[in-house]
Amino acid sequence: MIHLPFWARIEGALQRVFDLSYCVRTALAVLPAVAWYLYSGDLFVLKAALIGVYLLIVSESLRPSGLLLLMHAAVIGISIGLFCLSFAHAWVFVPLCAGYAAMTHGLARWGEGWRSISVFSFIPALYLGCELNAASNLPLAYLHLLRCYPFAVIPVMRVSLGNLFYERRVRSVEVLRDYCRWRYLLPRQKVTPEFKRLAIDGAATRALAVLCAAVVVEQFHLDAGEWLIWSAASVSTGALASTGAKHRDRLWGAFVGVSLGVAIAGWVPASAALYGFAVLGVSVSIATLRNYRLAFALRCCLCVVCAAALGQGSGIGWLRLSNVVLGGLIGVGAMYMHHLLMRRWLTHSE
Question: Span 172-188, mean pLDDT?
Fold first, then answer.
């Protein structure tokens, strides 16, 4: 029997829970923004850092060139602006949400890479657009976020270029030349007709779920409606089995994470430093934990801690839990409705 050293066993246990190298790269991408926030107190820098996290997710999975990373960042920035413009008119906001949600699945018919780009544009655009909508001067808030954009883009480009140097094991001008080339996100993918059909079904289901959720948010003027909308979109996977499993995972994570966060919040002082490191924890947990339930529970817990660090109390946690529950139910209902409609249509067509 081989006895591993103590630290090797610890590392092995952590690797089963975290992708440690990914944790380090995410921290490197977010730390400059956290450091600037601690120095200046500018919350918009942390919002830009969250955009950087989603850019990094796409960068890690697709290995795009620097130009395509810039293109993705521009798409997110334009999308945030579109959401900001749409909030004054429900008849614009609701179809915009539904159309964007449909695109997140619909683009998959040309390859999984395009689905990643669209999903990780929709999430930051929706969340940050809703947050900016609460600002007293929306145009100035949006322009200020754009001024903070270098904190989102430059660290991620540095990390992705470092990955390229590490994979090639050389430091040469050729690596830089390849990084600056305009090339496709992925090699050409062979997409089967069945894969295309599933992508179209998923797009229809997600559009229906998000349409219903956005109508509920607008009709009842719900706070933090972006959580409800994305919860409905997240569970609408296009398949009944995975939709139910995803909803159960999110319910478990929200209940455990919010309960733990509320228990911790009573002991948390209002602190800018604590808020900055809690945001860092949220950023690191988005894609580095291997277990989705654990990752979602940690994010819910840290969201409550963030609110407590800003002196807002723990009520935000129960609001998040209710939005996750209601959004998930809307998503599951939309999935079953689409399934029944498709089955009836197939029956009549026969």
Answer: 63
